[in-house]
């Protein structure tokens, strides 16, 4: 296991210490970023992601805690060593490009090499090779103000790479670009991470860009709220696969990146309860369900809110529909507690045999949902699948496929529609049973 290339330990950063406008931007932030990782700091404006960015860059000293880059504290460096650190260890891509309009594109890229005493001929040759790589060689002799936004950002990427840094910091790199240029720049960053083996740390507001990353640090109010690993990427940081489960929460977090974990759980449960409801009614139902999940109203109050007229602040369901919604919500919440108990034991390394009581209970819920007519072989295989899914050893699609796979082939042998319905229901239970602190830590 490699050593972290960037390590933050209980990092606090406060602006204007001792003054009337003193402001604490980050609180007790700890994280480890590994060589060749591609990570993102993601969150709303003012959440502290830019503060961390500039601290890693070496221009914003921590007020408390520790920051290490390649095992060293850059704020202990002499001025000369700090310059070398900022020009050799780290490359920077800014949203606003920051190209010098009075010199050519080629000279913009070659400029950082001057501070390392590189020979003029080699500087030009190396800069041209980077221009060629990013498809902008024909613009070498142009001035930056004659380039499009996408071309300017690709020049900025080339300039960031010219000194072959270990770490690439990208500050909202596509914030000023159209969709086509955005894809070109994002593809270039992915190539730099995969081909050049560079560590990429990106700040972004764009949830669509999170799929490029190995891990995402979700930030809010100066804190890292949760860390989520991308299941589609081979992880570099050490992740205990049995302590990580990719559930509907991960999908919803991409669609609603600024929602809290409890809000994502609400959306999952409401999605299960609604079919063709108009959006206004769905929103009222979400509010009622959130109160239930937060234990702020009881079963009777929930039922009353569901059948109350919309003009009186209720959801406006018929009494029978309200009873069904209360029953299904209560059932999923109760059943999800078994998943939560199972996951807690797993995360505390208090693991037990697959045929344990909790696996039997969860499997029993699903057997009823499947029709309740499973033979002993089907029941045994369902227990095995439940164990594997709740432990994070298989994905949702694999669970569904194995549930529908014929018995002779090692599956449960359910009809396709039954297998899909069972999987859909099980994911709702898992979603409610997953701890809201996030995963992938």
From TrEMBL:
GO terms of molecular function: ATP binding; ATP hydrolysis activity; transmembrane transporter activity
InterPro entries per the UniProt record, alphabetical: AAA+_ATPase (IPR003593), ABC_transporter-like_ATP-bd (IPR003439), ABC_transporter-like_CS (IPR017871), ABC_transpr_LolD-like (IPR015854), MacB-like_ATP-bd (IPR017911), P-loop_NTPase (IPR027417)
UniProt xrefs under PROSITE patterns: ABC_TRANSPORTER_1, ABC_TRANSPORTER_2
Keyword set, alphabetical order: ATP-binding, Nucleotide-binding, Transport
Xref: Gene3D superfamilies: P-loop containing nucleotide triphosphate hydrolases (3.40.50.300)
Pfam annotation, one family: ABC_tran
SUPFAM superfamilies referenced in this protein's UniProt entry, alphabetically: P-loop containing nucleoside triphosphate hydrolases
Any single GO CC term annotated in Swiss-Prot or TrEMBL for this entry: plasma membrane
ABC transporter domain segment(s): 8-246
Protein name: ABC transporter domain-containing protein
Native organism: Candidatus Falkowbacteria bacterium CG23_combo_of_CG06-09_8_20_14_all_49_15
């Amino acid at each position: 296991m490699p050593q972290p290339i960037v390590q933050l330990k209980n990092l606090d950063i406060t602006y204007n210490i001792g003054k009337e406008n003193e402001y604490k931007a980050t609180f007790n932030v700890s994280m480890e970023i590994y060589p060749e990782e591609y990570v993102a700091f993601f969150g709303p404006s003012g959440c502290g992601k830019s503060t961390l960015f500039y601290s890693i860059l070496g221009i914003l000293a921590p007020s408390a805690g520790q920051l290490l880059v390649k095992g060293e504290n850059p704020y202990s460096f002499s001025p000369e060593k700090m310059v070398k650190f900022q020009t050799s260890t780290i490359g920077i891509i800014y949203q606003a490009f920051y190209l010098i309009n009075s010199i050519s594109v080629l000279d913009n890229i070659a400029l950082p090499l001057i501070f390392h005493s590189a020979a003029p001929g080699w500087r030009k040759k190396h800069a041209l090779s980077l221009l060629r790589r990013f498809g902008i060689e024909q613009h070498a002799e142009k001035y930056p103000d004659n380039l499009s936004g996408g071309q300017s950002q690709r020049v900025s990427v080339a300039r960031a790479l010219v000194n072959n840094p270990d770490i690439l910091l990208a500050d909202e790199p596509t914030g000023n670009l159209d969709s086509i240029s955005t894809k070109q720049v994002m593809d270039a960053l992915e190539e730099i991470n995969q081909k050049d083996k560079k560590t990429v740390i990106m700040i972004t507001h764009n949830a669509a860009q999170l799929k490029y990353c190995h891990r995402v640090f979700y930030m809010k109010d100066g804190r890292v709220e949760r860390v989520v690993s991308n299941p589609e990427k081979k992880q570099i940081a050490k992740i205990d696969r049995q302590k990580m489960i990719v559930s509907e929460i991960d999908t919803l977090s991409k669609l609603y990146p600024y929602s809290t974990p409890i809000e994502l759980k609400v959306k999952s449960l409401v999605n299960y309860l609604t079919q063709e409801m108009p959006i206004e009614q769905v929103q009222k139902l979400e509010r009622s369900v959130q109160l239930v999940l937060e234990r702020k109203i009881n079963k009777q109050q929930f039922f009353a809110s569901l059948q109350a007229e919309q003009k009186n602040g209720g959801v406006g369901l018929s009494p029978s529909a309200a009873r069904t919604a209360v029953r299904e919500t209560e059932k999923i919440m109760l059943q999800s507690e078994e998943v939560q108990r199972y996951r807690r034991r797993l995360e505390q390394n208090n693991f037990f045999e697959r045929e344990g009581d909790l696996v039997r209970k969860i499997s029993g819920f699903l057997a009823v949902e499947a029709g309740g007519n499973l033979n002993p072989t089907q029941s045994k295989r369902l227990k095995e699948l439940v164990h594997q899914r709740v432990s994070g050893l298989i994905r949702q699609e694999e669970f569904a496929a194995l549930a529908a796979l014929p018995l002779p082939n090692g599956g449960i042998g359910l009809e396709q529609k039954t297998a899909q319905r069972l999987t859909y229901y099980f994911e709702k239970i898992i979603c409610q049973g997953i701890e809201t602190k996030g995963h992938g830590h």
